[in-house]
Design brief:
The chain starts with 8 loop residues before the first helix and ends with a helix. The protein contains 13 helices and 14 strands. With 439 residues, the protein is α+β, with helices and mostly antiparallel strands. Helix content is 34%, strand content 15%.
């Protein structure tokens, strides 16, 4: 299962170098290129989009839209820190008492259902650079097996794996992101393979096991789940979830995303006194079209704490802070979510809450929750491919290009991410401990 053939230099050149060239181009056109949300309706695969069509180039743009100049190799991974120095002794190998047997079995069943060539295409070593090579944009060349290319039986086994690894809310959120990706494709004229329900990929690192380290990655436009397993311990970060639009009707189903994330953030902010809000809300920095800091390609980001610390909150406010965190953590299976919440609660005094933008129910804002063991970002961004204006809604004409990332942000385009700072994204710190103590 191991010994996967690495990407050729030509593929790496395509995937990363050309993306940085796009950054140098500047301007709205370059930004539209970087987003992967163009209105091009041509039937273009991820590979040809990256190599032949400028409009499908991989992204390395601002706000964590895709791996870029800051992307690092697995061996050079440090993790998110406040100043470049990793805080030691935050993580340990221990029994959580929460079984991973169901996830292991589901992963093995999915892999067993693949052909030999499909299996080779999606399996890597446990410490593969592929962990870090994820992106949330659609026009990005991805490794692994594509859901849209699988048989119905194989695809259902893939969803069964997600169902074991995620909570019911997490599975529903993931599926709805995929559905709204297809809606966006239809809205922009259809015919673009990357804007479908099927353009999502599985890769596996290591071999599914109840004792040895392994994991999987599931990613595509606006969705990237990194899932590391060691015994009965799970690390499900970085997990990126986003959508444009966030509310639409797809094949008769009304879908609305990120309501809980939006309302929980506002609930915490509104529970604060005026003096506390003055510390949380950044009055000197205006909300831009994209404010996310720790997106794809930002694995060694240095991000200082900002805002108000949990030690300055009363008991009711601390509960609202935990409620907010629980929305994001709650997308993993319930048992491991509770384990993760206890880890986060242990550092609640050191957990900072920060806000950019207005504070009305329908405002486009950014917030961040940041501690030694968790980073959460919520960012309402500028529209790129979905026009919510009256002209678009009345005519039914395709939208797109709403001013790029310099346009007015809206709750119809939201990006979120959750990370484990100080070296344990992708379970890296746990793997290091495992190799140091067990091998």
């Amino acid at each position: 299962m191991h010994g996967h053939k690495p990407r050729s230099p030509q593929a790496e050149h395509t995937r990363r170098w050309f993306m940085n060239k796009a950054l140098l181009a500047g301007g709205v056109a370059a930004v539209a290129t970087m987003t992967g949300c163009s209105t091009d309706s041509s039937d273009t695969s991820s590979t040809s989009a990256a190599t032949d069509s400028p409009s499908g180039m991989p992204s390395g743009g601002p706000g964590g839209m895709g791996p870029g100049a800051e992307e690092v190799k697995y061996a050079d991974f440090v993790g998110l820190t406040t100043d470049g120095t990793v805080v030691d002794d935050l993580y340990s190998i221990h029994s959580t008492g929460v079984s991973t047997d169901g996830t292991v079995t589901a992963a093995q069943r999915f892999l067993d259902a693949l052909s030999s060539s499909e299996r080779r295409s999606c399996t890597f070593e446990i410490d593969a650079d592929e962990w870090l090579a994820w992106s949330n944009v659609d026009g990005y060349e991805r490794a692994g097996v594509r859901m849209g290319d699988l048989t119905d039986e194989q695809r259902e086994l893939g969803y069964a794996l997600l169902g074991e690894a995620l909570s019911a809310d997490g599975l529903e959120q993931s599926r709805n992101i995929m559905k709204l990706n297809a809606f966006l494709g239809d809205y922009n004229g259809g015919g673009k393979e990357t804007l479908t329900e099927g353009h999502y990929f599985f890769t596996f690192m290591g071999t599914p096991s109840t004792t040895d380290p392994w994991g999987f990655q599931y990613e595509g436009h606006h969705l990237a789940i990194n899932y590391f397993v060691l015994g009965d311990q799970v690390v499900m970060t970085p997990t990126f979830m986003g959508s444009e639009p966030t509310s639409a009707t797809y094949e008769g189903e009304e879908i609305t995303l990120f309501t809980n994330e939006t309302e929980a953030g506002l609930a915490l902010l509104r529970s604060l006194s005026s003096a506390q809000q003055a510390e949380v809300i950044d009055s000197e920095t205006g909300k831009s079209g994209t404010d996310m800091k720790a997106g794809a390609g930002q694995d060694n980001l240095e991000l200082p704490y900002a805002g108000l610390a949990g030690s300055e909150l009363d008991s009711a406010q601390r509960e609202k802070l935990l409620d907010l965190v629980r929305v994001y953590v709650g997308y993993m299976d319930s048992g491991h979510a509770e384990v993760r919440m206890r880890e986060i609660e242990d550092h609640l005094d050191e957990t900072y809450f920060y806000w950019l933008g207005e504070t009305d129910d329908d405002s486009a804002f950014y917030y961040r929750v940041h501690s030694p063991v968790v980073l959460i970002e919520y960012d309402a961004q500028s529209p790129l491919a979905y026009n919510t204006g009256d002209d678009a809604s009345s005519s039914g004409a395709p939208g797109g290009g709403m001013g790029g990332m310099g346009g007015e942000p809206t709750q119809q385009h939201i990006h979120t991410i959750i990370r484990t700072p100080n070296g344990n994204d992708y379970g890296v710190d746990l793997l290091k401990l495992h190799l140091a103590t067990d091998h």
